[in-house]
Write a structure and sequence with these properties.
Helix content is about 40%, strand content about 25%. The strands form two sheets. Strands 3, 4, 5, 6, 7, 8, 9, 10 and 11 form a nine-stranded mixed β-sheet that branches. A two-stranded antiparallel ribbon has the order 1-2.
């Protein structure tokens, strides 16, 4: 809407409206369809948007190349990531990178694992972090690591003192689960079917951080990969316990880029830094 555009641009809505009218008059075509309280791109608007995005994508490499002539790095790195990585190791990674490269702008967006891959493949992200990436022909896997699954509970939970647990022990307690479509969720559903166990009572969410908080304050059990506990985040009053039977599953975590594209200088610096940082940190979980 014009109101939302004016808010983001920090200009008056009337100024945005005037500029849109001026642009349509100059081009001689209708760029937007008025939907009442909002605007929708007309066919000509979609075409103009496509060309504008192409121009902006060409501009970034030019700015990066000119900056490199002066011995410093600028530019933008667009990162797409899953939620569980964004709230742990990625925060530390970005903090460290920003200290070393203060002139490089980082733009972060959070998605499902499937959508992370789509963001990279469609050119909306330079680098992606996700689990179990498909369509390997489209992507270069720059770093990968496999993580065993386990449960996370409060340190006062009845299961907290165990060195390992079975799936059947877990489903005796309320469960915190990620939304359908994740590898964890699929493995649990299959295990429940194989064991002829009723599907447990559960709370469903899109955020792993919320599920950890749920476990921290009560008796809920949440399932997650071990890598979450390689960070200083999320450790307080929580315990990770490996699973000793199905649904044993291993998730493959990967850093990906589009193999069809040449990385610009700024994303290349980020990828190099991330590989060093993550190789050292993730090795501790193997």
């Amino acid at each position: 809407s014009i109101r939302e555009a004016s808010r983001r641009l920090n200009v008056a809505a009337s100024a945005v409206s005037r500029q849109l009218s001026h642009l349509q008059d100059r081009l001689g075509v209708k760029l937007f369809d008025n939907m009442g309280h909002s605007l929708r791109l007309a066919p000509a608007g979609h075409e103009l948007l496509r060309y504008c995005r192409a121009i902006l994508e060409d501009l970034d490499p030019t700015v990066d190349a000119i900056s490199s002539l002066h011995g410093y790095r600028t530019g933008t790195v667009r990162i797409a990531t899953i939620d569980s990585f964004a709230t742990t190791l990625l925060a530390e990674l970005i903090s460290g990178f920003s200290q070393d490269f203060p002139s490089i702008h980082l733009s972060l967006s959070i998605h499902s694992a499937k959508d992370v891959a789509s963001q990279v493949a469609e050119g909306f992200a330079d680098v992606g972090f996700a689990f179990n990436v498909k369509d390997r022909d489209l992507f270069r896997i720059l770093l990968k690591a496999e993580f065993p699954m386990g449960i996370v509970v409060s340190d006062t939970h009845p299961l907290a003192g165990k060195s390992c647990v079975t799936y059947q022990e877990c489903v005796g307690y309320p469960i915190g689960l990620l939304k359908p479509g994740t590898s964890i969720r699929t493995a649990l559903e299959q295990a429940s079917t194989r064991a002829s166990l009723p599907w447990p009572k559960y709370v469903e969410a899109t955020s792993m951080r919320f599920l950890e908080d749920l476990a921290r304050v009560g008796r809920h059990v949440t399932f997650q990969p071990r890598y979450r506990f390689t960070s200083g985040f999320c450790k307080s009053s929580l315990v990770f316990i490996p699973l000793d039977d199905p649904p044993k599953t291993t998730d493959e975590f990967a850093m990906i880029v589009d193999r069809r594209l040449q990385l610009r200088p700024a994303p290349k610096e980020f990828v190099s830094f991330a590989k060093r940082f993550l190789s050292e940190r993730l090795e501790k979980t193997q």
